[in-house]
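Case study 2.
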Amino acid sequence: MELDNAFITRLKENDSEAQRVFYKQLAPKMYGICLRFALIREDADDILQDGFIRVFKHIGDFRCEGSLEGWVRRTIVNTAINYYKKKIKQGINTDLDFVKGKVKETNDVVEKMAADELLKLISELPPGYRTVFNLNVIEGYTHKEIGQLLEISENTSKSQLSRARASLQRKIFAIKDKEKLG
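Prediction:
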């Protein structure tokens, strides 16, 4: 999305029409990010709403270095992380150690799956696994950065990612076995 400086200035001046247009253009894309982090749609809705509130509240901090969309994306991701941290403090278990064993990789099955099927499988991961998986694999954060963002050790991040991948692989194999039988 190309935004000129005049439009960005309108956003920084809290122009409600500019905000409406901006939200309408970016919200669907940002909602996809929220869905990857959230367990249920209501949580994704909350993350999106909170994220855009933060965007409009702090738009004055945007220094036009890099893309505005990238800045918004980072704000939404940080909002999702904060939401995740809040859930941890509320006592929601995110350190699930029930994934055991190694599963062979199966790229051919993944290639045949539709993107929405993969996103559904990712959304079914436990919150800790899903968050680390999204941050590392989809958003491109390093384990060190994830550790800092989530206030966990780098090794915990690596472990959560490994378990997320193992869980996804098991689910993919289950789908593959089901297709063979069906």
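The two ends are 44 Å apart (CA to CA).
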